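Look over this record before class:
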Amino acid sequence: MEMSSAGVFNAHARVADRDDNYNYSVRVVEVRLQYNYNGTWLNLRDEFPADSWASEQDVERTNSWSCGSSARKLVRAQAYVQWLRSGSVGADWVTTNSVYICPRS
């Protein structure tokens, strides 16, 4: 999660190849800014970057979302990342801890 200015948030994802002998290619496939509504996680922002594989790291963000006069929200960031080596693709969802934002103005 990033707060670019007071009350303005986005989800930020980064996947990177470690500095070792395996040389993976990596990419962020999807990144979400989500909020919890009655126990269900819903998307505030959802981005599907059109990137190709990156040799060292891939960094992506959702568009920003502004609190405005919203009530307090429980939010989190979630990203789907992939890694490629020797024609074999691995993938996983990565999810941050949740945090409350946006007190009512």
Q: What stands out?
A: Residues 27 and 76 are 20 Å apart (CA to CA).
